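ok, trying the design again with the full structure, not the truncated one.
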């Protein structure tokens, strides 16, 4: 979510540097539109779930373990439901 903030200056602060009120309004609206209509949306790029690096790290087991897991799954698949 984009937050829009506003910084207000006292009337004397704006006149100290010699800038005109029009320049201040123009600066405010330029910053407003830049922040309000920023095309970057980080929530669209958020990665949901573990990625390939996580899988590579956590699934790095020996071939013997893989064969045991496959054997267990095959045995479970062969069993018919008792209901």
């Amino acid at each position: 979510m984009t937050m829009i903030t506003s910084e207000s200056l006292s009337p004397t602060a704006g006149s100290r540097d010699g800038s005109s009120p029009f320049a201040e309004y123009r600066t405010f609206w330029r910053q407003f539109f830049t922040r309000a209509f920023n095309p970057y949306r980080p929530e669209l790029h958020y990665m949901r779930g573990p990625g390939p690096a996580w899988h590579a790290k956590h699934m790095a087991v020996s071939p013997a373990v893989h064969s045991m897991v496959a054997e267990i799954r095959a045995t479970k698949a062969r069993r018919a439901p008792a209901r």
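Keeping the full-length input from now on. The radius of gyration is 30 Å.
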